[in-house]
Structure formats: structure tokens, C-alpha cells
Design brief:
single chain; 189 residues; alpha+beta; Aminopeptidase; eight-stranded mixed beta sheet; globular
């Protein structure tokens, strides 16, 4: 298990550090194995619980700021949300936001709620100058979350993401500066 544990709470959700437990692996597998979830983001659905355990151990836990999204009411893991290095802005205080959500939870505002909470955490903890996010041209649900969170569309980089099928997809790039984020938070109060 990790030697640290973080939790962020929102009205309906708890974002918790991923742990190397059977419960977290099963929670990840429950939605990451759905063929409608991963391919939208360009990754292969998990084929087994063992694959979910491996991804948990090799990607989510060592990465640091990756969180299981849990419904408060049930404790069920319904998704993942992470902050990671923004490779497009070397030398700038910037991180990139990424996420995935269980299909049965789409359209309920959960991801927007989780993203806004992690944006606040990221800007405050890391004193970021800017936060970035990218998605594919085909992932319209993700684009809607990005817009609701106040990110500005920067442009599309053609054939920027090589996905598990061998296809090269275009990526839509977005960002929000610290000043834009602060103003948006003031306006929402």
C-alpha cells in the first residue's frame, strides 16, 4: 500500500488515493472492462481483473495524484481522475487533467463535479499557472465536461494520439489559466 493517502470530498463524491487492494482493483475493473468506456479515450477495455491490478500497480498508484472516484452514498468506485505532468509546457507550472467514468454514471454531472474539485486542488497545491486537458474529436461527452469546467479550446493537433487499435487520432487541446480559474470561482460564489 502507499505510504500516503489523500481524499477530496465534494457534495456527492469522494476522490480517494488508489490503493493496492482487491477492493480497488475490482472497482477499477467494474467500469474499465466496459467496451464503451476506454475506447472513447483511446485505451483498450481491461480484459481481466489481473489486468486492472497491473494497471493499478504500474500506472495509478505510482503516478501520485490519481484518484478513485467514489459515490458517497454507496462507496462504489465509479471512475478515475488524475493530474499529471503537462508534457506540452516544459518549464511552466502546468499539469494536465485526465479522467474516465463508469457508463451508468454518464450524464449525471459526476465528472464535472470531480473535475472542478481536482482543479481546485491542483491550482492550490501546486501553485499552477495553467492547467491543460485534451480529448479526442469523437469524445463529445468529455468535451462537454471540459467546457463546463471553463477550459478554453486551443486547437486540434492532428494524429497526436496513437491508440490501442493502431489508429492515430486527432487530439483537441484545452487549457485554463490560474487567473481564469480564479475569476470563474469568484463568479460561481
Amino acid at each position: 500500500m502507499k505510504d500516503y493517502y489523500w481524499e477530496i470530498e465534494t457534495e456527492r463524491l469522494r476522490l480517494t488515493s488508489w490503493q493496492d487492494t482487491e477492493e480497488d482493483a475490482k472497482g477499477l475493473y467494474s467500469w474499465a472492462s466496459n467496451p464503451n468506456v476506454g475506447p472513447n479515450a483511446g485505451w483498450k477495455p481491461h480484459a481481466s481483473l489481473e489486468e486492472s491490478k497491473k494497471i493499478l500497480r504500474e500506472m495509478f498508484i505510482p503516478g501520485g495524484d490519481g484518484y478513485a472516484i467514489r459515490e458517497k452514498a454507496t462507496g462504489e468506485i465509479i471512475g478515475n481522475i488524475s493530474l499529471y505532468d503537462d508534457t506540452a509546457r516544459e518549464g511552466v507550472r502546468s499539469m494536465e487533467l485526465g479522467y474516465a467514468l463508469k457508463e451508468e454514471c454518464w450524464g449525471k454531472g459526476y465528472m464535472t463535479e470531480a473535475a472542478k474539485a481536482l482543479m481546485k486542488y491542483g491550482f492550490e497545491k501546486y501553485d499552477l499557472a495553467i492547467m491543460a486537458i485534451r480529448t479526442s474529436e469523437v469524445n463529445h461527452r468529455s468535451q462537454r465536461v471540459i467546457e463546463k469546467c471553463g477550459f478554453t479550446y486551443e486547437g486540434t493537433l492532428r494524429k497526436a494520439y496513437h491508440i490501442y487499435t493502431g489508429e492515430d487520432r486527432d487530439s483537441r487541446f484545452y487549457s485554463i489559466t490560474r487567473e481564469e480559474w480564479e475569476k470563474r470561482n469568484e463568479d460561481e460564489k
